[in-house]
Structure formats: structure tokens, C-alpha cells
Amino acid sequence: MSSFAELGLSAPLLEALRDVGYETPSPIQVEAIPPLLEGRDVIGQAQTGTGKTAAFGLPMLEYVDPAEREVQGLVLTPTRELCIQVTQAIRAYGQRKGTDVVAVFGGAPIRSQQAQLRAGGQIVVGTVGRVRDLINRRSLMLSGCRFLVLDEADEMLDLGFFEDVEKIIAQTPGSRQTALFSATVPPEVRSLADRYLLDPVTIRIKTATLTIDTVEQFSLEAKAADKLAALVRVLEAERPEQALVFVRTKIRCDQLFRTLRDRGMNVRALHGDMSQGSRDGVMISFKDGRVPILVATDVASRGLDISGITHVINFDVPTSPDVYVHRIGRTGRVGRSGRAITFVEPRQRGELEAIERHANTSIAPWTEGAHVDPAPVQGRPRRHSKPRERERGRAGDGATALTKLIIGGGRSAGHEPADLVGAITRAAGLDGEDVHNVRVLERFAFVEVPASEADRVVSKVSGADVRGSPLRLERARR
Predict the structure, then answer these.
(1) 227 and 176, same structural domain?
(2) CATH label of the domain that carries residue 420
(3) Which residue range forms the structural domain that includes residue 421?
(4) Which of 98, 137, 177, 347 is deepest in the core (most CB within 10 A)?
(5) Contact between residue 386 and residue 368 where contact means Cβ atoms under 8 Å apart
(6) Are 106 and 80 in contact (CB under 8 A)?
(7) Which residues in 37-110 belong to E strands, given as ranges?
(8) Residue 104 CB neighbour total at 10 angstroms
(9) Same-domain check for residues 73 and 191
(10) pLDDT tens digits for range 63-89
(11) CATH number at residue 115
């Protein structure tokens, strides 16, 4: 599929998509929208950041009648952050149709949400707890709900919401259409789907297309007592624009935050025991770029979809390969490259090998290189020279130093290697033989050019039109 129009969407939705700048559907949208428009139930296994909100939001908007005041669609989310994110997206998609979307979540006055529901709202997006509360108060009636979405079902399971989810489902008509989206599908999620979905279409979007090709992955072995010094060393050497540091527990999150803060770093913490107001403040500061380092637990970071994250650091080894893939998928987004570094204690080598095996990836050892003093750092961060550009060929054989560039677009934008080589040679005045190792992926492409010409190529070629879309170039991060 090359356009949203080919998926069968109506003119108002196509116009709304043009308004928000969407041109080409993502893989999950291509696979999920047609069966949902046909009225089929769907199980979609896809990570955050793949475009799944549009995948279920657009078909839901096709069903909804703005002239009817009753609730016709319900989206259940595990966290407030994801609830707000989904609400904003569906409102944007439904603006041309005049659809009213109401968000209901904990941590905000319930009376104002009750008033919004009384005023109307064809689609409700809500957290499980608040939806259940509103149903109990008879402020939310679901007898006319024809479309139900369970978003991030595995996180609802982890948070212990499944009992409430089933009680909410019981309030909806048996004739409803149901879509379940989840990054992973453990047995409990599969069992829930078997009970409440009718002959569903199952869609799996491979995680490799989301993360592996756009994220450089490394591991660093360190004893438990040495991990803090190792983290400081990594932050000094990498100098991330924005880093997301994952830990397993809330206690560890607070401890690591305080330690880094006491060392003079601009850092914040995010975990489930914080008040909602505190979590909102942290999220806004990190999204705005005012905080470069965020220490977070997995559950608290759900809904944190920020294109500017350059580094993901797994201070604690993820509990499963799926969690690993989900974590590192927070970087390397929207035409950018990213780096993921996982700390491994000696006793955890087997866990790292299992991640490599099941995630079908290779994780190289992290080294600081010659430009960094390998001794542990205890004091103030030191400045280091930038890593040298890597060179092709053997030393002394006249090989040219090359720099890798990343280009937004890829196969989804109709780009071919010849298109990219042609654009670079025309705009930057290079010879075609100066452009090496062109690799076109689904949503990105990589090329290598002489290091001495890299900045000029980025400047001259960025904005060049290829097959109707402007190119976006940047240096691939080491």
C-alpha cells in the first residue's frame, strides 16, 4: 500500500491525515485498518511508536456518528500518559468529522470528567480505574458502545487491571467490535483475547523493523558495586543529548536519581509511586528537552514517546527479550539513529545471551576508545574529544575516511538506492562513486560519504525532493 486512500478511508479522514502531515501508512496501519473497516476483531502485536493509535483510531472514527450523543467507542489504556497521548491523536484525526473525544483518567477531578460525559462524547479514552469508577457512579454508560480497544494489554496485565477490564467489557454489547493491541502476548493476554474476541485477525509487526536497524547496541560488564561508576563513565563518554536510564524497581529508581543529582547532573526520576502531578511535571520537562537524563521504571515510562532520545541505558538487565526490545525502541525514532547500552553483572551473562538469541540481535561490548581515560570517574565530568571518523580499508592503503548518514523516508516513501545517490550527487556535487553502502530500509536509509564532505552533504541535500517528499539527513551517531 502506498497511500491511506488505498486502505479505504473516507474523505474527511484523509483530509485530517493531510492536516497532521501523514502521507504514507506504517506497516501496522496497512495490516490492521482494512480488517477493522470490515468489522473484524483484531489482535495487533506491535510496539509503541509503530503508529498503532491511527491503526485503531481511524476505523473507529469511520463507525462513529457525530450526530449521536451516546458513547460509541471506548479505548482502555493502562496509564494516564498513554490516555492523553491517544486522546490527542484521535481528536486530531476526527476533527474534520466533528467527533467529540473525552479523556477520563485518575489524578484529575472526576466531576469535570462527569460534566464532559454529560455534554456528549462519542469516543471515550480512559484509564481502567477511572472508567470503572465512572461506570459505578453511572456517569459512563456503555450500552451503545460498538467499538472497544484494549491498548497495551500486556501493561494492563502487569499492573493487575485484568479483573477490572473484564468487568468493563461486561458492560458493553456482545455485538461490539473489539481490537486488542499489545507489545507482547503472554498466555494471560491470549486467554483474555480467546474469551472476548470473535475469530480475530492476528497481526504481528516484527520488532526488528522498529529497533534493530536504527539502534546501535552495546553491553558493558560490571559488578553490582561498580555499576554506578560505570554509568557515570558512560554518560561522560557518550555525552547524550537525551538519555533514558531504565531500572527494575522504584527503590532503585529513587536511589540512582539522588546519586546522579548529588553529582551535579541534571536528572529526574519517573516511577509509579510518584504523585500524578510530579509525574506530569517530569514528563513535560523531559519532552521539552529541559532535562537530559531520565531514570525510569518500565511501567512508569509507558506512553513516553519522544523522538529526541539519543540513548537508552539499561542500568538493570531487562526481565525478558520483549522488554529489551521495547526499551531500546525508545531511541532511533523518526529518522534518527540511537544507541543502547546494557549493563550486565557477571552472573547475568546468560540473560544477555538469551536476549540476543530470542530478539535475533547481536550486542557488541562497549568500549570508550582511545579518546577516553578508562579509569573510573569519581568527580566532575570531564570533556573528551569527539570519536574519530572510522576509516575503510587497511591503514596506509590510501583508504578514504567515510561517515555514515541516516536519511528519513525509506521504502515506505518509495525511495530507491538510485534516487538517493542521484539526489546526493546533484545537490552536493559529488561523483556517484563517492556514495558508498546505500541501504534502504522500511522507514530509513543509510549511506556513507567521504568524512570531509559529510557536513556539506547534510546541509545541501536536506530538503531535496525525492518522489514527492523532502529528504531529512543527519549523521548516524556512533
Answers:
(1) no
(2) 3.30.70.330
(3) 402-475
(4) 177
(5) no
(6) yes
(7) 42-45, 73-77, 101-104
(8) 26
(9) yes
(10) 899 999 899 999 999 888 889 889 988
(11) 3.40.50.300
